[in-house]
Amino acid sequence: MSGDPGVTAGDIARLAGVGRATVSNWRRRHGDFPRPVGGTATSPLFSLSDIEGWLHRNGKPFEVSVADRLWQRLRASGDDFQLADLVGWAGLHLLELRGDPVKLPWPGIEPDDSGLPGLLADLAAEHGHAAAFGLLVERYVQAHSRRLVVTRPDVARLMTRLACREGDVVLDPACGLGTLLLATPGARLALGQDGNAAAARITAIRLLMAGTPAEVVPGDSLRGDGFPGEVADAVVCNPPFGDRAWGHEDLAGDPRWEHGLPPRGEPELAWVQHCLAHVRPGGRAAVLMPSAVASRRPGRRVRGNLLRAGALRAVVTLAPGGPDLWLLRRPEPGERSPAGVLLLDADGDFARAELEWDRYPDGEFCVPVIDLLDDEVDVSPSRHRPRLHRRRRCRRGSRASTGSRTAPTPARSRSRTSPRSRPRRWRTRSRPPTRRARTSASPSPGTRPRCGWRPSWPASRACRPTWRHVSFRAPRCPSTSSCTTRCATRCAADSGTP
Ligand SMILES: C[S@@+](CC[C@H](N)C(=O)[O-])C[C@H]1O[C@@H](n2cnc3c(N)ncnc32)[C@H](O)[C@@H]1O
Question: Best substitution site from 227, 238, 256, 268 to test ligand 1's pocket, by max atoms within 8 Å of Cβ?
């Protein structure tokens, strides 16, 4: 090995602190720019020392840090598919340098660059062993950003905050590079498994470096569970999405499918049940899911059983288009199932998600389980938004306008005295107005219902009217707003007014 690794145009841009376009311009405009020494026409490789020399000659600031020099040489000492093993090799070497007895198996690869151990020692002296390995893992993730799925750090923090407590035994059965296990605060023991042995090794090294007691197993969690019969206080998992070869036939009679055999096309429901099978009674699980799993028809039986058993406690859509975070709990023996499930479209507001989870089983985003146990068992938060009390309040007003003799009282005082008459706050299906109602609804004062409630909407909240009680006998509804039209439509539909 020459010790002079090849660098790509992207590497040069990063090392020189410029954009990719600048490197392309240098190549085009400067006849003395170094010629490629390898690679392909679309992804040429340049000699790092040639590039260093050219940049210095042309007065461009360029300092290759120890981390970058080490990274480039590590990368050059094997092909790209071996990069995870090379990073694992470097991690084990750093553990040895730190004086930790290495109990992990070494990868079946030995880089042929004799300068690497010296560079690793320099890097560890500069940053510390754990940070040095962190830098290499970071470079690896950057280099393989298209191939690797790494859980976003803020999502990992949210998941572990919602599911884990200090001193827990925590399991991640698809641990990847260990982001979730590392985000767990003060775990007593971290258990991990991943189908990719090189990734599992990196997780084990990161946890050892962080001083977290850990057991990490390589292998397929569904077909070859690495922790059979073991239960954890909490399970966190970002499983692979849409893996149709998950083992539907082979695992047909598996005892983990307590809530029903996951259909072939619903691998994520197999992962949810695998996670639940490893949670102790009273323990929690936080699992990332594609949004479609909340509503796909073939999964309705398993979803229904999870709800009936009181295992599924919350579905939180983290961002538009997903993913969803499913929060689950294994009920204690004899524990009563909760009456509601939190269905929240957090729209990127993770603080809101935490707040609503703290309020669970109260709060306006809690939907009665009974309302969800229909033909579809659709637990998508977007299908179950709070109704802002509009319909029920309008209905009350319309009842009076059609001759009811019971004078309605404002909803707030009534709900306190009579819980049974509390307005149903959830709509399970959005119902378009009937044709009859559509034709009967008119914004003209003559046909406007006397609903007893008037909308008050500051201009900035035009689409989210709030309602406050004004006076039942002298209702005042603005005649021009489209919201009034909608209100009139609903009142007419509810009261059956022609
Ligand atoms: C979305 S990634 C997890 C990322 C991880 N949380 C992180 O941040 O690094 C899914 C992981 O599941 C692993 N995987 C896929 N199928 C698996 C299986 N059957 N058993 C165990 N792990 C599996 C993949 O290797 C991948 O590392």
Answer: 238
| Domain enclosing residue 257, as ranges | 153-383
pLDDT digits (tens, 9 = 90+) for 303-353: 999 999 999 999 999 999 889 999 999 999 999 999 999 999 999 999 999
Q: How far is CA 11 from CA 5, 8, 32, in A?
A: 11, 5, 19
Nearest ligand 1 atom to alpha carbon 246: 19
Query: Domain for residue 1, yes or no?
Result: no
N- to C-terminal Cα distance for the chain? 88
Domain count, the chain: 3
Q: Which of 125, 143, 161 is the last residue of a domain?
A: 143
- Give nearest CA residue, ligand 1 atom 17: 195
Both 437 and 356 in one domain: the answer is no
Q: Which of 92, 110, 143 is the last residue of a domain?
A: 143
Q: The pTM is what?
A: 0.76
How many angstroms does the Cα of residue 176 sit away from the middle of ligand 1?
5
At residue 475, the pLDDT reads 34
Max CA distance (Å), the chain: 95
Amino acid symbol at 60: K
Q: Cα of 452 to ligand 1 centre, how many Å?
A: 56
78 pLDDT band, cuts 50/70/90, is confident
Residues 133 and 241 in one domain: no
Does residue 321 fall inside a structural domain?
yes
Core vs surface per residue 208-242: b (16+ CB within 10 A) or e:
bbbebebebbbeebbeebbbeeeebbbbbbbbebe
pLDDT at residue 387 in the model: 53
How confident is the prediction for the chain on average, in pLDDT?
A: 80
Ligand 1 centre distance from Cα of residue 168 (Å) = 22
